[in-house]
Design the sequence.
């Protein structure tokens, strides 16, 4: 046998070990995927069943026939359009406020030089470890004294003051942009604000999109904020509206699953459309800092 056809013993053993590890990884991922997809599939199929199919044992996974009119009954019995409208308002404003506040703070921490900058950045990151409910009572009292209860202001305005994770993610991306581009613009007379708006922001579209996606998921699914600060039914987002609707039902599981499906559908569609941006968000946080 020619020397070129021989394979070192160590290399063959290593390749078999790598294939074994890859196979184990795929098996674990498949099992994990199935464990997450089965409840979702059960929710969707239950939403188009009648009571007889829901209580059948063993479980009938494929409804025969599918009761699509359950969704029509849902929108007739609950103000779902109002809940969806409120959710869209909260989500759009929350995404815009998150992008504005976090991008400005991130640029300051990435480019501006001022005393205590690194200490302030460390303190901001440290607040991530503080649970939201630990500051719930003081913030509720503060917003109550400001007269903001039963409005969207306590839910939206904090985003204008920068959220720690979004600021960290954008700062990491801003640090990867060559400083020379801004130096050249400043030589030509550009101000810091102009460099931020016309150089950094256009080059950071991918990072801004990732922050927007994360903010969308947060505000679309936010439950604690509306539960604490809102009391009027016509201001409830869909997360709180579903709880209110479910409390009025007497074991109408089909309509409950219809409401849950309507609430989760935009998030699922968004993930399938923009999943590569979610993956890139994990990568960006590892850029030099």
Sequence:
């Amino acid at each position: 046998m020619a020397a070129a056809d021989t394979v070192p013993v160590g290399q063959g053993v290593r390749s078999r070990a790598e294939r074994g590890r890859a196979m184990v990884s795929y098996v674990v991922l498949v099992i994990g995927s199935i464990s997450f997809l089965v409840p979702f599939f059960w929710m969707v199929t239950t939403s188009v069943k009648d009571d007889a199919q829901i209580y059948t044992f063993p479980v009938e996974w494929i409804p025969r026939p599918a009761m699509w009119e359950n969704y029509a009954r849902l929108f007739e019995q609950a103000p779902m359009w109002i809940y969806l409208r409120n959710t869209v308002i909260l989500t759009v404003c929350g995404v815009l406020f998150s992008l504005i506040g976090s991008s400005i703070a991130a640029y300051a921490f990435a480019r501006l030089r001022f005393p205590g900058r690194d200490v302030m950045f460390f303190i901001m990151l440290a607040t991530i470890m503080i649970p939201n409910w630990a500051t719930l009572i003081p913030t509720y009292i503060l917003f109550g004294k400001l007269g903001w209860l039963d409005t969207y202001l306590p839910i939206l305005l904090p985003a204008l003051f920068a959220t720690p994770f979004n600021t960290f993610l954008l700062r990491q991306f801003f640090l990867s942009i060559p400083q020379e581009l801004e130096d050249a613009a400043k030589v030509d007379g550009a101000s810091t604000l102009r460099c931020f708006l016309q150089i950094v922001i256009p080059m950071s579209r991918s990072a801004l999109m990732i922050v927007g996606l994360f903010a969308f998921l947060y505000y679309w699914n936010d439950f604690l904020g509306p539960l604490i600060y809102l009391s009027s039914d016509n201001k409830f987002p869909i997360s709180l509206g579903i709880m209110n609707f479910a409390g009025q039902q007497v074991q109408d599981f089909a309509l409950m699953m219809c409401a849950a499906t309507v609430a989760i559908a935009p998030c699922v569609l968004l993930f399938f459309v923009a999943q590569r941006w979610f993956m890139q968000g994990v990568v960006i946080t590892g850029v030099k800092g």
In short: The domain at 72-284 is CATH 1.10.3720.10 (MetI-like fold). The first helix runs from residue 9 to 46. The CA atoms of residues 210 and 279 lie 9 Å apart. The chain has two domains: 3-46, 72-284.
